[in-house]
Design goal:
355 residues; alpha+beta; D-Maltodextrin-Binding Protein, domain 2; eight-stranded mixed beta sheet; 15 strands; binds 6-O-phosphono-alpha-D-fructofuranose
């Protein structure tokens, strides 16, 4: 039997390979106006940064001096990995001579980095965590980069970038790169959440998933239970609940991006609560919690401090931290209910004591 000749051009696969990140951004903005072109160009530069970091990660183990600690501590008081510095420099370099981004604010820099030649033109600020989860780098486990794009408000004459201290609703775009078995870029411009996979043979991020929706509920709870001893009682009560009920499974990698990506696709909740000593928790608002909260709400999920919507929080400083409860709406609300119940009981006890 004569089998039909395969088509010379498989329209579907060719079109898929042509649905690159920059094309998708223009489709999202459904226009070719200057702002759309700028956003598309910015996303393209972020993609370039992701490719450079991915390339370095894939061979760092074979490169002298690529892994390990620098011996310095960053503004967070954390030991700095050589990969943190490399990735931070990459994000700065890809925006030089771009005319796009005037300021970069990073976990690795106490103050924003200004690119003066861009400032007369570029009114955008990129906030980013260049390598999130860097404790995983030396053991070849997944790490990520997280980014948030904002428009500069007014003139930043004192170089303190006070205009960045705004709620997360002011974000123009947000996303992350997951450096795993493949390199995945997930982003949103406020028009849904979309994922791209890097095709190394093309050097392009190719569309993999459009309008991703987080399940309303999922089995995963992701938290560092080693911190149990220092949590508020309300969080301990939640953990005891999931320990005693069927249908939950614990997953925690020590790298926020990978833990979040699992929950985005499979449902569940990630939490990094505050502690009695550090009520504000560990994760930074402007370049970790806020961009992920932007994505989560776009995907139909929820993100809070446990008591307040993350995107409503207005930070008092660039590197402000917040507790984070993020993921499927039903699972986030279950955590919040334990916090609300505990708070109500505390108030009742206090009112009885006073009366
Ligand atoms: P812990 C990595 O340092 C990070 O900022 C996040 O990527 C991660 O979720 C968290 O800290 C892990 O912190 O205290 O559980 O090691």
């Amino acid at each position: 039997m004569q089998h039909p000749e395969p088509p010379i051009v498989n329209e579907h696969s060719l079109d898929r390979d042509c649905t690159t990140l920059s094309r998708h951004v223009l489709q999202q903005l459904s226009s070719f106006n200057p702002e759309a072109q700028d956003i598309s160009a910015i996303m393209n530069r972020i993609a370039l940064a992701a490719k450079l970091v991915s390339r370095r990660l894939s061979k760092a183990g074979l490169m002298a001096g690529a892994l390990g600690f620098t011996g310095e501590t960053n503004v967070q008081g954390e030991s700095v990995k050589k990969m943190d510095i490399y990735a931070n420099e990459v994000f700065i370099s890809v925006f030089k001579q771009s005319g796009l981004v005037c300021r970069l604010a990073s976990e690795e820099m106490e103050k924003p980095y200004y690119i003066p030649e861009n400032c007369p033109v570029g009114r955008y600020t990129l906030l980013y965590d260049p390598i999130d989860g860097s404790s995983n780098v030396d053991i070849n486990l997944n790490v990520g980069s997280i980014f948030s794009l904002r428009q500069q408000q007014g003139e930043d004459l004192d170089g303190e970038a006070q205009d960045l201290l705004q709620s997360g609703d002011r974000q123009i775009a947000a996303g992350y790169v997951l450096y795993g078995p493949s390199t995945v870029l997930v982003y949103s411009l406020g028009k849904g959440v979309h994922s791209f996979i890097l095709d190394p043979s093309l050097g392009e991020f190719i569309l993999a998933g459009e309008n991703i929706k987080i399940p309303h509920h999922g089995p995963v709870y992701s938290v560092n239970e080693g911190n149990y001893w220092q949590w508020n009682e309300s969080i301990r009560e939640y953990i005891r609940y999931v320990h005693r009920h069927e249908g939950y499974t614990a997953r925690y990698s020590g790298a926020l991006v990978g833990d979040f990506h699992r929950i985005l696709l499979q449902g569940g909740v990630f939490l990094y609560p505050g502690t009695v000593q550090k009520p504000e928790g560990k994760l930074r608002l402007l370049y970790e919690s806020s961009p992920l909260a932007f994505l989560t709400e776009q995907a139909g999920g929820k993100a809070s401090t446990g008591e307040q919507r993350i995107l409503d929080v207005i930070p008092d400083k660039l590197h402000a931290r917040t507790p984070l409860v993020i993921g499927s709406t039903k699972d986030v609300e279950l955590v919040e209910s334990f916090i609300q119940d505990w708070t109500r009981r505390q108030l009742e006890t206090e009112s009885v004591t006073v009366s």
